[in-house]
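batch_manifest entry 22 of 60
target: Gfo/Idh/MocA family protein
source organism: Pseudopedobacter beijingensis
requested by: lab member K.T.
priority: normal
notes from requester: please return tokens only, no post-processing; we will run our own comparison against the previous entry in this batch. if the run fails, retry once and flag.
--- input ---
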Amino acid sequence: MNRRNLLKTLSFTVGASVITTDILASVGENSFLYNAPENKKHKPLKKAVTAITIGCGARGTVYGNYALKFPENLKIVGMAEPHEFRNNKYAQAHNIPSENRFDTWEDVFKKPKFADAVVISTPDRLHYGPCMKALEMGYDILLEKPIAPTVKECMDILNYAKKKGRIVAVCHVLRYAPYFVKMKELIDKGAIGELVSIQHLEPIEHTAMVHSYVRGYWHNSKETTPIILAKSCHDLDIVRWLVGKPSKRIVAMGDLKWFKRENAPQGSTERCTDGCAIERECPYSAIRDYYDLRRRPTPFNLPPDKSKHGEVIMERLRTTDFGRCVYRMNNDQPDHYVSSIQFADSVTANFSMEAFTSYGGRRTRVMGAMGDMVGDMKELVITDFRTGKQTKFIPQVEDVEGYKNAGHGGGDWLLVKDFVQAVAHQDVNLLTSTIDQSVESHIMGFMAEESRKAGKVMDIKL
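--- output ---
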């Protein structure tokens, strides 16, 4: 599907409101394919925006790949990455000259400003330093979420960005996903009448939870960030964006219930490779996930010779955290987390993050005075209470090459596209997720974590 192939504009009535939306095709009675509308504020670029990527792992690669696909819009001219394999791979992909290749972010800023923007996709606790230095030197910034691991650091970045007059786009990519864009549009146009309440679920999927938050890089909240920010600040942000009103109070509960040493099955060992008696039947077997099925993107840098991949994977399982027993890690991230939020005008929202699901993909229910919406990122169904009529919208997204599910519902590259336009024309209004808009949902996350630990309702003060 291509946006240029839009077939027609659909108009339908919900209550007293007429909803108009561009569609690609009708796929049954009251069922329509659609795609994210073109941003009418976009203008032709005189030249490609130049950027430096700091942190060239998965997220840095996703954003960098936009430049490879659309070189007329974005060119990566510099990089910083301490890992030799990733440094070499990224530099080769973008043809970055040796004088613009660095191991650390500090080294980037020892050189006079040599690009329009900086992409910061470092580990969570390494966002603040490079962001503040980039602002000082006059760069615009595409900043991976979370903004920073403390409220003070988030506010420092916000205030310094305003002082320097620079653009900081936070990578809340769900705001750009066609599914959520349509949901926001319909709410704002009154498709379900006045908004009353939202229920939002993030099912992490059990092996994804283990990959990132039990064995993986975010397993220890003290060394990275709490899971409500590391994983779910996307979700708090999308709820805040949909409601469109200030948050007032928040309460949260949750804990690490299952992935603990006392729950280790009899016969299990420190590693899946140590002759574990129940490895073949364990749902969290590292051997099955990484070696047998290869169903999860490997965290290991594999050699070009595919015949050696199995050997390298098994060696890594014997020597890294990714081969350790999930019941014997030094993890502390909650494996279930629920939060309730009170917004202005008596709007409420409930958010639930759950590790123990067989599926991924966010689920959302939106309740209004004249109708409701139910969606799972694959389709969005609206019911009009007055007529009983249902209308189904099915988003069509552009794939992010090399990544399943089109990168957060197609939002990754749509964010970069808007960022490039904002930098080129120095117009922050071209962005949906500026630092100003994103700080509140981060504060919601910090207050949720404080509520969870203290066992009390927290007032949200901005």
